[in-house]
User: Fold this.
Amino acid sequence: MPDSPTPEEREKKDKEQKAKEAAEQAALPYKWTQTIKDVDITTPIAGNLKGRDLDVKFTKNKLKVAVKGQTPIIDGDLPHPIHTEESTWTLETLSDGTKEISIHLDKINKMEWWPHVVTSAPAIDTSKITPEDSKLSDLDGETRQMVEKMMYDQRQKEMGKPTSDEEKKAEMLRKFQEQHPEMDFSKAKIG
Assistant:
């Protein structure tokens, strides 16, 4: 059985992996960033091109970005589906006179990180992503309630106090006892 790597060896391997990943991503003809909710891609093009010179298409599962008559800049399957009606692209002129295509893809599953823009591109290690601080106000009502309950329960546990579910059970028992004073609850165990 091989020895498990030391923290130094692990750190060296992580650094090498990160450098390899950075080099692969830098070699792509576009730059991309993501949040847990969406993916943004920019790709530079010649300053003399106009929107009509471009061929930009996306479906729920595919993305194609090309200058008409040239090899596509991006052409492939998306790793996960997108909301096409919420996704957009624009042609922007930068301050130096060059242009770039800016693409915004709205993820359907707002709970997963993408390893790449298209499945044919080199992947990044999504387990190393540290999510940006998301605000509770960004979440929909049901998700927000669930997260707030989890946060409350976590704080209660840390202080050695009952969780919201345990509090509910105790409250139900208390009400039942009030409604049935004739019953003896002195030896009752709550599980």
Observations:
- Residues 7-26 form the longest helix (20 residues).
